[in-house]
Amino acid sequence: MTIKEIASLAGVSISTVSKIVNNKDQNINPETRSRVLKIVKEYNYTPYGMVKNISSAKTFLLGVLLRTASQTNLMLNGILQAAQEQGYNVLLLDSLNSTDTELKHITSLCKNNVDGVIWEPVDENSSQYEHYFAEQNISVCYINGPDTLPAYNIDFEKMGYVLTQKLLEYKHSKIACLMKEKSRRSKMVFEGFKKCLFDNQIPYHDKMRLFISDPACCSKVLSHGFSGIVSSHFASSLILYEQMNKLHYYVPSDLSLVSLKDDVREAISFPHISSIKIPYREFGYYVCRNLIQKCEKKDEGEPEYTFVSQCIFDNEDSLDIPSFFRAKKIVVVGSINTDITFNVDWLPQAGKTTTILSSTTTLGGKGANQSVGAAKLGREVSLIGEIGNDTDSTFIFDILEKEQVTTQGVHRDMKAQTGKAYIYIERDGEGTITIMSGANGNLSPEDIQKRQHLFENAGFCLLSTEIPIHTVLEAAKIARKYGAKNIVKPAALKSIPEQLLQNTDIFIPNRKEAAALCPQHTTVEKQAEYFFQKGIETVIITLGHEGCYLKTAETAKYFPAADFISIDTTGGADAFISALASFLIEGYSLEKSIRIATYAAGFCVSRQGVVPALIDHNTLETHIKKLEPTLLK
Question: How far apart are CA 186 and CA 182, in angstroms?
Answer without folding.
Answer: 8
